[in-house]
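Troubleshooting: if your tokenizer reports a length mismatch, compare your output against this known-good record of 118 residues.
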Amino acid sequence: MANPNLLETFPNPHPRRGYLIEHVVHEFTSLCPKTGQPDFASMTIRCVAGAKCVELRSLKLYLQDFRSEGIFYEDVTNVILDALVAACDPRWMEVESRWSVRGGIHTVVTARHGTRET
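Known-good structure output:
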């Protein structure tokens, strides 16, 4: 499983303001747990930060750790959300994964934490 200890944070420079942060990862890769074939997705991570923000280099390294992981779309989306919530303790967070078409089916999985304020 990808190592959530790779995630680093820094103090939110404006913790009293509820503002939206959006990170888009265009080249997310994991493996199909049934076939071992690569799965490709775009990940969008949206959050209203609390006291901490995720450091981007560490986010990149954490997400790259899934490249050799056999994991279903639904699981990986929720695992990423859980790791980010544990690391950052945001007011609100959403992880949306948009998977490349496989077998004529395009899949989008969205997992959320908290209540969006902005």
